[in-house]
Amino acid sequence: MAIVYDTYQREAPPRLPLLDAVDPARIVAWHHGEPVNAACFLAQVQAVAAGLPAAPAGVNLCEDRYAFLVAFCAIALRGQANLLPSSRAPQAVDEVMAAHPGCYALGEQALDPAPRGYRQLPPLDAVPPLELDAAWPSIPAGQVVAIGYTSGSTGAPGANLKTWGSFHASNAGNLALLRAAVGPRVEIVATVPPQHMYGMEMSVLLPLLGDVGVHAGRPFFPADVAAALAEVPAPRVLVTTPVHLRALVESGIALPPVAAMVSATAPLPVELARRAEQRFGAPLLEVFGSTETCVFASRRPAVDEDWSLYDGASLHPQPDGTLVQAPQLDAPVALADIVSLSDGGRRFRLCGRHADLLEIAGKRASLGDLTRRLLAIPGVRDGAVFQLDDGDALGVHRIAALAVAPGLDAHAILDALRRAIDPLFLPRPLKLVEALPRNETGKLPRAALLALLGQHDDD
């Protein structure tokens, strides 16, 4: 079924700047080790926009973060929406394109095979800078500029429409967070893809709408992260995930001085947060949000278990989750997270997710806590506990687990878990694997977990 989306219809709809920079010399990005200023960036955006086809939307497949920035703004400037699949795998791209008849795909690489209607970005370096007295472009606040898809960690990916006005509103909270932690000017290196909503917020919107410069790369290995940080001036902020953070800490590699680190996409273990702060000598900030809501809260897990809401955000606990209100939302959004409020509702503590809560024989547990206890076992490098789809004769769904634990066997892990949890919640089966099927942001799509468990059941 095709997804229907449209802009808001209002009298004289307000317009908001595409790039919040009154100074044409303001550095927006660092590309191939060189700074790119606002005048040069906007000239390249307008040149790309002029060559785009008439269409409702375009799939932004750019791998290079600077190319993504240019393509994102060019698509938006044409009045179109950026389609952001949860994965750039051909099947995921095809499914998104099928839901948006008439769309095209855009990227900086020569793809073979390529999606239908694929267009390659022209060379950007040959575009002359924008004239200093040229009008700076703006976009209607109600225009849908992006459609992000959830990761599929709890089921099939879902589409979420984002207007330019909502992005301006959500960016204000993240910008205030970084200014309070670091100062007015920030240089960002991110290990997350810009297509993911966390990557969009922290490495696309911030350089567009704040005094922020972003490194064009997406470093993966610890040595690559160190090299990317060395290519931007201080103060540096590393935007990353718990998976990448653990790899950095355990690698022993030295990083150029960082002013702060930011983490999201999965719960950050307190011990890892403390090790990272000690190892790299900078505060580690964790942000909380979703593709549906964008970020609306933050904390420093090394020193505080509770989350602080951004200005204008509020939470309303429900029996099966929490309603979120925030400046970027036209209507409250329901999340499955269970919270307890404090400080007059301005702070909260996570108590699990409704879908993660288990009840067997009158006893309760949560998948999140079971996974945390699995990861706490010495020798377990990675792992996940999840519930299977099929129930037994009484309707009870079995609990399963996958673990990466070289040197351990399943019996040893189960013995350690038996000392930490009620035997009713021991995962059976528990399978040892070489690696978990994490996506680019470290999340674990449920379908991939079930498929990997099935492969080992066949062994």
UniProtKB/TrEMBL annotation:
Protein's name in the database: Acyl-CoA synthetase/AMP-acid ligase
Domain AMP-dependent synthetase/ligase, chain residue ranges per copy: 124-308
PANTHER family in alphabetical order: LONG-CHAIN-FATTY-ACID--COA LIGASE
Top-level taxonomy: Bacteria, Pseudomonadati, Pseudomonadota, Gammaproteobacteria, Lysobacterales
Organism encoding this protein: Rhodanobacter denitrificans
Gene3D superfamilies: 3.30.300.30, N-terminal domain of ligase-like
Top-level taxonomic group: Bacteria
Pfam family, one: AMP-binding
Keyword annotations of the record: Ligase
Single GO MF annotation: ligase activity
